[in-house]
Amino acid sequence: MRITLGALLIGTLVLSSCGGWRESRVNPTNWFGQSRDARVEQTVDENLNPLIPQEDEQRANLLGRRDAPEDRSLPIARIVDLRIERTTVGAIVTAVGEAARNGAYEAHLVPAETQEPGRLEYTFRVTYPKSATYSGTAATRTIRAAVSLSNQDLAGVRVIRIVGAENARESRR
Description:
Layout: H1 2-16, H2 20-23, E1 36-38, E2 74-75, E3 78-87, E4 90-98, E5 105-111, E6 119-127, E7 142-150, H3 151-154, E8 159-163, E9 168-172
Parallel strand pairs: 6-8
Antiparallel strand pairs: 1-9, 2-6, 3-4, 4-7, 5-6, 8-9
């Protein structure tokens, strides 16, 4: 009885000391930490009047052909969460955003045009319906988008940043 109790006590102490691996920098699941809020610079188009309707994109040109549709997507209103999950071939970056109103669709993470070394930046973009929709609750406006990154894409990357209209979230290695 004493031997089994002693072995059980020693086994418990040994297992409880293994908790340091979870917070260790050697653990691959900790390579990117928790995401944090970051500032985003807002630009205002002074020439845009919201009361004047924009040109209809379905108009035909002089030859009767329709022009290629332009990208109507906008940055999502707010980034709520950012998660980076390691895979065997790289990582999956998942962003959760909250749209300004209901009905947003075609959510995708678009890489920024200019990338700084050691940093990956994406803009979370969604397309809103042409017709007016209700604002709704936060749960009905929540949208997720993800992008898969290979180990080659992640080589030398220290920061992954997702930008929305009002805020940005970033995760550091």
